[in-house]
Structure formats: C-alpha cells, structure tokens
Amino acid sequence: ALYDRLSGNDHLEMTRRAYRGYDPARAKAMLEIFSLDPAKRVARLSKGQRTALALVLAFAVRPQIMVLDEPASGLDPIHARAILDLLIEAAAAGTAIVLSSHQIGQVERAADRVVVLKRGRVVLDGELDELRGREKLVEAVFATPVDDRKFAADTRIRRVERRGSTLRLYVQADPDGVIRDVGALAPISLNVLDQNLEELFFSAV
User: Fold this and answer.
1) How far is 89 from 91, CA to CA, in rounded Å?
2) pTM score, two decimals?
C-alpha cells in the first residue's frame, strides 16, 4: 500500500525498517530505471509512477516469493520491458513468482508454468514447453480455396480453420501424416509451427 501524504523516500525508509533483506543499492538502481524522484509525495505521482514505486519497494527486499497482479499496469512499453527483465532476473536467482496478467506476450516470455482461468475455472494448466508441444499448427496457403471437410472429420485434427485460401489445422496426433495429406493438395506454402501461448489461450477459452 502507498500513502498519499508520504514521499517515496518515506516509503523506502519504512521498508528498510520492516524488512531485514532490504537492499538500498538495489532500491537506488530501480529508482533510476524508472526515473522516479523519491522526494515526491505519492499524491503527486501518476498511476504508472505509483506502480513503479510499489515495484521498487517489492524488489528491494529480495523476497523469496512474489505475488504480482498486472505488475506492468500503467507503465509505458520501455518500463514494462524493464519489469519483465526484472522478473526473469529474480526468477533465475531463485525467487518464486506468481504472476497474474492479461499480457500474453509478457507471460510467454517470463513464465515456466501457465494456468488459464475462465469464469473462475481452470481450463489450461501445465509447463509452457509441454503445452506448446501438445499440438502442431499446420498452416497451408493455396492458389484457390480447398475443400476442408475431409480434415474436419479427421480424428488426428482437433480444429480446422479456413480463411480464404489459407487453411490452418490444429494437429494432435501424427503430424507427419497430416503434412503429407496437405502436401498432396499442392499448396503454395506449407508451414508447421509449435503453438504459441496466444493460440493455446484462445483454444482453451
């Protein structure tokens, strides 16, 4: 919690007194990363600056566990990237981080394990690398649209998408066999991709 009547320096002093692991050098470095003036009262800070100050306080104590809800909220892209780098650095140093975020790209870069919730229920849960490997995305472009009904009935394929002359198949089993079948239709281009987190998210929800 931040207190409007207190300055950034006041918050840092309270944190120093409350936490044995407080690292003043780390706090100073993070103030510089976010271009924060610690002499300013919190009431004069923007939403993004408040978020940055809260993160400085959190990271300065070098915690063993961090629970973060939308930590980049209100930050510009440069500072949001800085937060991502700090999260990765902290995790590599042994901090366990639970991160709640709607920024799929950030989650994909930082997370080892992902849980997706829909209306309070878990609809996807697992190690990110393992989830990516569950399915292959076969994407083919044709000179003219092809009949995709044979693929829709194929038990190896979970979902079929066709947009104009582009055919996308979400393959759960025997990707090589599906690739041969698609290749027999003489596409202009044929690509096989691992699923990214965005595709996994949309498939789950």
Assistant:
1) 6
2) 0.71
